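As a representative case, we now present a protein record of this kind.
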Amino acid sequence: MYQAFLSYSHRADAVVAPILQRALERIGTPFWRRAGIRVFRDDASLPASPALWPSIEAGLAKSAHLVLLASPASAESVWVDREVRWWLEHRRAEGLLIVVTAGEIAYDETTSDFDWQRTTCLPPALRGVFKAEPHWTDLRFATGPEHRTLRNSGFRSAALSVAAAIRGVAKDDLENEDVRQHRRSVALLTVLALATAVAVYIARSESESASTNLKEAESRRLAAEALIDLEQDRGVEAATLKATIAWRLAPTQEARRALRRIDETTPDIARVLGQHTGSPRAIAFSRDGSRLATAGDDGVVLQWSVADGRPWGSPLSSERQSVHQLLFSADGSHLLVNGRREGESGLPAVAVLRLRDGKHLATETGWLETLRSGGKTHDTVCAAISPSGARLAVADGRILVVVELASATTVAHPLPANTHVTAIAFAGETHVNFVVDDDYGGWSRAGFVNTQRAAPTLGAKANNMRGQCGFTSFSDDGSHLAVLSDMEGLGFWKIEGANLKQLPHPEAAPRPDELTGHLAPAWDATGNRVAFGVRGTTYVWDLAARQIVKTVKPAGYGPPLALSPDGRLLAVIHDGTPIVWRLDREEHVTSIAGTRCGESLDDKCIERLCERITAQRDERRWRELLGDRYAVLLSALQGTRCSSG
């Protein structure tokens, strides 16, 4: 059972919703105990199920209250309106709690209803429901991270109001209980600190062996604090610093587990290392072919010089996800990262990184909400970026959405009924090519959409290519398409206007069961050359000459591939290491051996992380993060080293 169901717009409140959920669950509960109440939030609570609404409906049925995060975006959301309507049909309106995060709300006593001319943040389902003005909580001030914390008095008061209503207690009583629990926690930590101090005194008076035991005890305590900081959203930086100092004091199992837990939660460790903490999952050449970008499940994108294999530029933070597509914009200014979020949600994760400053552009989740409204959602979506990097296109089911990245606005382009999108690409700044398959497996059709007009143009029907997002790829100019299908095998097509023209296969074309693991084939910029894998062997085919120009046989199962835009370089990931080949030579050009620290965050990686963080100590920042214990810990670090040997 859940005490509350959180209904909100992902486009407007994707940041504040999990923070409010955490606050409601933790208020009045000691940090060492489980949450006092359970709050249902779709991204955190939904199982991996293809049927979205039944899962949401089940969550609603198990909840005692509905907490509506009201905003103009939620007022327009069909999902929020549907959730509120279900609640009013099956529950009492008194169990619905309104928290306003943006927009206006006004109640008209003369009509015994909200003033819908001035109210901009409530869904249509609430028309005529409340005959007297309901109490609502104002959270519109929480516009920045400094406002979205229980240390902020306004946010704390708002969270207490909602939590008290959910628990059925007076706000003052709940606040007093929370204060008592906080004091108990402080007292417990004080007792632990005193116990540690006593242990320190005894250990120092005993022997050198006791000194070692002391450092191990301090290491374990710091590791525990790091996990508490991470769990209670006190900051990844503080958690990482404490866990690293814990390792340097003594390489305990607790310190090791804390660092690995942080690595599983955030891309920060891979970013500090400048290396992936696992194998790269996707690769792409820069526009001039001088750099190779790599992306891993750790949420970091790294760039490497093809000439000498050295790191290039600063690490770019994306988010932890299973990456299947990495693509530079045609002008080389932006980088598209397309994958699937890890964890229970398994939702698509699409990011655009601006290379000049590493900024993660605000694609938010409005596009995902729009795709959901189309009735079909998969964990892999088609994605493309415009030549200048100004626009992002994503598609799933029969909906294609274009996002203007400067304003984060979205425009949906519905496609014909009983079809689903299998591939998309920009063929100009405002021109998107796409391919749809018949839901019943009869045919495929190409088409295009002008992003400034809603109506798509479709071409004639062609043989069904049985493609799907993640297993298809366009050349940069949107003129050629490759499809890897487990039913039809490998197919090459040319887009002429809005029509599909199938191209001949290379000689001895592979059977479907021979095609291996790199998902979509890789193109050069103009569609002259394409690389694909067959049973762990990589082939590069020249379509114009109709011949294989390169064969590479790295060990392992179907590696990720990339072709340089000029078609002269091939990159293959072999045993977790990118290898770059010249297509006119037998030997490889560069083996980029430094891309990963290890298959997981092993001791060697931890030692490297420890050296990077502690060797260049920022005194001011360390004082902020460690507080009064800064001097004591700094003294304890004297004579220690990061090497566990």
